[in-house]
Amino acid sequence: MRMNFKEHVISTIKNKNSAVCVGLDVEPGKIPAVLKNEKNPVLKFNQEIIAATKEYTAAYKPNLAFYEQTGIKGLECFEKTLEFMGGDVIKIADAKRGDIGNTSKKYAHAFFEHFSCDAVTVSPYMGEDSITPFLEKEDKGVFILALTSNKGSFDFQMQKMADGRYLYEFVIEKINSWNAKKNCGLVVGATHPELFEGIRKLAPDLPYLIPGIGAQGGDLENTVKYGFVKNDVLSLVNSSRAIIFASDGPDFAERAGEEARKLRDQINKCLK
Amino acid sequence: MRMNFKEHVISTIKNKNSAVCVGLDVEPGKIPAVLKNEKNPVLKFNQEIIAATKEYTAAYKPNLAFYEQTGIKGLECFEKTLEFMGGDVIKIADAKRGDIGNTSKKYAHAFFEHFSCDAVTVSPYMGEDSITPFLEKEDKGVFILALTSNKGSFDFQMQKMADGRYLYEFVIEKINSWNAKKNCGLVVGATHPELFEGIRKLAPDLPYLIPGIGAQGGDLENTVKYGFVKNDVLSLVNSSRAIIFASDGPDFAERAGEEARKLRDQINKCLK
Predict the structure, then answer these.
(1) Which secondary structure element, helix H or strand E, spans residue B14, and what is its range?
(2) Complex ipTM
């Protein structure tokens, strides 16, 4: 029997003893000079980063924008990067997709079938029928944008609804009702640690993908204190730039590995 | 001097005497049998559809999901389809993207620089800094999801905020404030014709991209009556399936041309 997505997240974090997600947001201009003569420097970079961080990492999250910016070549790199990850990590396409039902169905096919990802990030603005096509198979999951890590999260997500709740709370409540197959998760930014306690009460049962640690300045300690469910660790803490661009020298992979290990240890220490 | 995006929409609609946008949402399984032996049936289909409809069409809108579903091959087809359109139509990437600032910047590069599109559809959920990277050049525009054509539009967009407005009205007001370079537009679904009058009052100055006519059952007459600005026609009415799959026989392109012409004439009649 296949595990549902929630069980997959829990068991991967347990097996790896790590709740770290490494964001593979690779800017071609930032590739270390030592790789410049490679046939495909970005792919080689990703492969070396994955090899060096895998021991300390439960999930990888390539953001599609960084691959689409170079068109077909970038998508080839995305595909080969996913292949290189192997089977013992959670592969998250950070795509923030969402469209009318028959179109979301195509996106679900793209990411789950064609690229064999385990999860996709999606935007809730278009409502239930834009999300449900991603939820058909219990072993494939979505992380739905709830409260994001950026300044723009104040524009709509943190506006009050008629019943006094914030929009993001309203969204989370809806998401709970879409979770029959235990394959919904939330994106919640670490830049809002003061809100984590309330969010975990609203959605005690969902896996969280937590960006905003590192370059964006999020608060790790409170994030783990309030955003995590401790017995079955359910949250993944993403770090991109702070890990993958820890060094631009020939030691870039080694340093990325160190940063991933450090983040794993920091999270595990907070969990105790 | 380059035209801003709003002027580009107005002048293209005027030059073409048409407010029709053809949605190139091509399902490989629906390609007419007559093209099955082509080297690239989907690309050949798109090229024949474009050649047959171009006289009656102001804009083309390929939806990325339909291309991404076949991965690299699909993206190649997307790229070649855009090249085939030529310069006298508005090229809209229906991508519904949106991410934190440094990531949206990459998407803007992908669609505006790499693929040379004129406009992208984007989702507002992540707020201002997720949209502004798309607005840097005045001749490149966005159509921001305001009130979409699907059932899910009731889940969040049509929920009331604390001040009594609907979320979509709140979103539209924000968008007005982002429009310094006259390159913002709205996506407003034709399935909500009773709301068009109010929406046009909220945003008298923005180009609209209007899906939902045809297969989704939207109301053309009221859409044109209330959603259009008549002196400078500012709205594009999209139809996908009803045009491109009008016939699955050898006459598929001819029939698509007829349907595009018919829609153009219906809109122009309503405009009188």
Answers:
(1) helix B5-16
(2) 0.96
Q: Which residue of B has its CA nearest to A112?
A: B69
Instruction: Report the CATH number that the domain containing residue A202 is assigned in CATH.
Output: 3.20.20.70
Residues B147-169: tens digit of each pLDDT:
999 999 999 999 999 999 999 99
Number of domains in chain A: 1
Mark yes or no for CB contact B107/A25 under 8 Å: no
Q: Which domain holds residue B67?
A: 5-271
Tell me: pLDDT of B217 over 80: no
pLDDT digits (tens, 9 = 90+) for A214-265: 767 778 998 999 888 878 889 999 999 999 999 999 999 999 999 999 999 9
Determine the Cα–Cα distance for residues B205 and B186; give it in Å rounded to an integer: 10
For residue A1, what pLDDT is reported? 58
**Which of B104, B115, B127 is closest, CB to CB, to A154?**
B127
For residues A111, A122, B140, A28, the Cα torsion angle rounded to the nearest 10 degrees is -60
**Token pair recorded at residue B246:** 């009008």
Query: What pLDDT sits at residue A217?
Result: 72
Give the length of chain A: 272
Residue A94 is predicted with a pLDDT of 98
What's the confidence (pLDDT) of residue A126? 98
**B265 CB-contact burial (10 Å; exposed 0-12 / middle 13-18 / buried 19+):** middle
Instruction: Determine the Cα angle at A120 with ends A237 and A189, to 5°.
Output: 35
Q: Which of B96, B105, B137, B181 is catalytic?
A: B96
Whether residue A96 lies within 8 A of chain B, CB to CB, comes out as: yes
φ, ψ for residue B55, nearest 5 deg: -60, -30
Q: Which of A106, A127, A151 lies at the smallest CB-CB distance from B150? A: A127
Percent of chain A with pLDDT over 70: 99
Q: What is the pLDDT of residue B269?
A: 94
